[in-house]
From TrEMBL:
Top-level class of the enzyme under EC nomenclature: hydrolase
Major localization listed first in the record, in broad terms: cytoplasm
InterPro entries: CsdA_RRM, DbpA/CsdA_RNA-bd_dom, DEAD/DEAH_box_helicase_dom, DEAD/DEAH_RhlB, DEAD_box_RNA_helicases, DeaD_dimer, DEAD_helicase_DeaD, Helicase_ATP-bd
Residue ranges constituting the Helicase ATP-binding domain according to the UniProt record: 39-210
MF-aspect GO terms: ATP binding; ATP hydrolysis activity; RNA helicase activity; RNA strand annealing activity
Gene3D superfamilies: 3.30.70.330, P-loop containing nucleotide triphosphate hydrolases
Name of this protein: ATP-dependent RNA helicase DeaD
Keywords: ATP-binding, Cytoplasm, Helicase, Hydrolase, Isomerase, Nucleotide-binding, RNA-binding, Stress response
Function comment: DEAD-box RNA helicase involved in various cellular processes at low temperature, including ribosome biogenesis, mRNA degradation and translation initiation.
Span list, region Disordered: 440-491, 561-635
Residue positions of motif Q motif: 8-36
Length: 635
């Protein structure tokens, strides 16, 4: 659908006058492309299928028209918005509250895992008109009888692709069955894979389809560069970048929750104001950490993809991908944390030599090159430190009373018969011992690849053209994982010591392995749950340390104690260098012989950190609590 002229402003869209006035009070003058296209259709009560990247204003695109149609005198849930994470649920609920500030008697309630049920129950008794929640907690309240969907007029799925990737497909289906048959449905997704198309076909009635821009259009305002660096020098390169880059606030992405803590600790040891942001932190701690970044008490957050979902802090001028994402669309979401609403932003991607293929996949997805940059040189680092040292000396001379120190140096020079310049040189040396002013060695530059990566077979652009997943065979037991997966030739069967008698479900097993092992859910194959154990198909070539870690991961209070199903010790797992399919390659194509993570496996962070050990945090379902964070409402 072509982008219409948005110069007419919000007044021409037909919004409720109260909502229109609120929008003007907030300083919004011209609707974005997705707002101008979606608002009229949603006001007319049409079902809508929208594709738009983060930062395009899609929250307002559905919140403004739905608020215009709401009945404030009717004190019961009229709108239900499903979101994949706590962050996004909070973001959307705050946006609704902001847009509806002039509607008397309006209430919106976010409900998500990790928050006490008592608080949510007391707020549900106020009969809010809008419920924004994560699927798991919404299901819990419906089953408890504390949330009734009989009065729901509109159901919104925000970031539907992310919800399906997280294994919420069956939950969403169940929630749809509890809602009235006659209702409006709006589905928004950053990508449009076959699974989303199937949901739209099954649940939307004669929908209007709106597609806004491409991945590249959402990142054009961001200055992007990549730096090829070996795993063992990633931390050194990062700290040099932090010293040389003039940044306000920075968001650093890593793959695992454990890596957020380890990397932030190392950065603090280097003198940087850094803190982790991950799903193991309780909601109060997460909100306090984000607020410290907003207030300038922190400069750097080290986060995982899920923890940073929906995060919008104006101070974030830089995003660093310390660990390259295995999904190109995740890269777009990551760097979308900066350069929002027309602001300038800078994104730096650290790429290990074996990960050049993932870089090419990202470039094909965003349809532009990510230029290379050299690691900061020793000479540049030395000059920066010297300049900073000179500035500190001049500032001290101007702002401090140094009479005592003048007398002290004169005394030392006289009593010890030492020249003043010699004393000054010794003091300068003592001052810079922890961070030498004269950096002597440049970091080694990785050798260029022996083959031309451009010769790799072309890959379909974007996830919406990925190979369709096979239709589900109704004869399969429901214990089998129904996500799209690689062919059996790319998978190895493992036994885990949790089964029916422990109450385990496929979703919990997939979530535990995906979160703790760093394996994308779509690369996890069949799951056969038996009485006291289960068999799960996982990608070939898993590193031994990951297999060892998964042994200590808990589901339903049971350690997985994972082992090869055939009782043998897989030789290919010892070092993680087994051949694997190329990124984005469909089963049956030639294997890429370049060493890299197999079957979508996300390797450890470059500092060698291992995944977090111990049982994951659990919500009422016996597994992972939904994640969230407080933030300013802006899409």
């Amino acid at each position: 659908m072509d982008t219409p002229d948005t110069s007419t402003g919000f007044g021409a869209l037909g919004l409720n006058p109260i909502i229109e006035q609120t929008v003007r009070d907030l300083g919004y003058e011209t609707p974005t492309a997705i707002q101008s296209q979606c608002i009229p259709h949603l006001l007319a009560g049409r079902d809508l299928l929208g594709q738009a990247q983060t930062g395009t204003g899609k929250t307002a695109a559905f919140a403004l028209p739905l608020l215009s149609r709401i009945d404030p005198e009717l004190h019961s849930p009229q709108i239900l918005v499903l979101a994949p994470t706590r962050e996004l649920a909070l973001q959307v609920s705050e946006a609704f509250q902001g847009y509806a500030k002039n509607i008397k008697g309006f209430h919106v309630l976010p409900i998500y895992g990790g928050q006490a049920y008592g608080l949510q129950l007391s707020q549900l008794r106020r009969n809010p008109q809008v419920i924004v929640g994560t699927p798991g907690r919404v299901m819990d309240h419906i089953r408890r009888g504390t949330l009734c969907l009989d009065g729901i007029k509109t159901l919104v799925l925000d970031e539907a692709d992310e919800m399906l990737n997280m294994g919420f497909a069956e939950d969403i289906d169940w929630i749809f069955e509890q809602a009235p048959k006659e209702r409006q449905v709006a589905l928004f997704s950053a990508t449009m894979p076959p699974a989303i198309r199937r949901v739209a076909q099954d649940r939307l009635v004669d929908p209007v389809e709106v597609r806004i821009a491409s991945a590249s259009a959402t990142v054009d305002t961001i200055d992007q560069h990549h730096c090829v660096v070996t795993r063992f020098h990633k931390l050194d390169v990062l700290t040099r970048i932090l010293e040389l880059e003039p940044f306000d606030g920075m968001l650093i992405f890593v793959r695992t929750k454990n890596a957020t803590t380890e990397l932030s600790d190392k950065l603090k040891a280097h003198g940087f104001a850094a803190e982790p942001l991950n799903g193991d932190m309780n909601q109060e701690m997460r909100e306090r950490t984000v607020e410290r970044l907003k207030q300038g008490q922190l400069d750097i957050l080290v986060a995982t993809d899920v923890a940073a979902r929906g995060l919008d802090v104006e101070r974030i001028s830089h995003v660093v991908n310390y660990d390259i994402p295995t999904d190109p669309s995740a890269y777009v979401h990551r760097i979308g944390r900066t350069g929002r609403a027309g602001r300038a932003g800078r994104a730096i991607l650290l790429v290990e030599p074996r990960e050049r293929g993932l870089l090419r996949a990202i470039e094909r997805t965003i349809r532009r090159d990510v230029p290379a940059m050299d690691p900061p040189s020793a000479a540049a680092l030395s000059q920066s430190r010297i300049d900073r040292f000179i500035t500190e000396v001049r500032t001290t001379m101007t702002e401090q009373d140094l009479d005592f120190f003048y007398r002290l140096l004169a005394r030392i020079g006289q009593e010890q018969e030492i020249e003043i310049m010699d004393i000054a040189a010794a003091l300068a040396f003592l001052n810079q011992r922890e961070r030498p002013l004269n950096v002597k060695e440049d970091l080694p530059r990785p050798a260029a690849p022996k083959r031309e990566w451009s010769e790799r077979p072309p890959r379909s652009e974007g996830r919406d053209e990925r190979r369709p997943r096979p239709e589900r065979d109704d004869s399969r037991p429901r214990t089998e994982h129904a996500q799209g997966r690689r062919e059996d030739a790319d998978l190895v069967s493992y036994r885990i010591e949790v089964g029916h008698q422990h109450g385990a479900t496929p979703r919990e097993i997939v979530g535990a392995i995906a979160n703790e092992g760093g394996i994308e859910g779509r690369y996890i194959g069949r799951i056969n749950i038996q009485d006291d154990h289960s068999i799960v198909d996982l990608p070939k070539g898993m590193p031994r340390e990951v297999v060892n870690h998964l042994k200590r991961v808990f589901v339903r209070g049971q350690a997985l104690r994972i082992s090869p199903a055939d009782g043998t010790r897989p030789a290919e797992a010892s070092h993680g260098h087994a051949p694997s399919p190329k990124y984005g390659q469909t089963p049956g194509q030639a294997q890429d012989k370049t060493p890299r993570a197999a079957g979508g496996f996300r390797r450890q962070s470059g500092d060698g950190s291992a995944p977090r050990r111990g049982p994951p945090s659990k919500d009422s379902s016996g597994f992972r609590a939904d994640r969230g964070s407080s933030r300013k409402p802006r899409d």
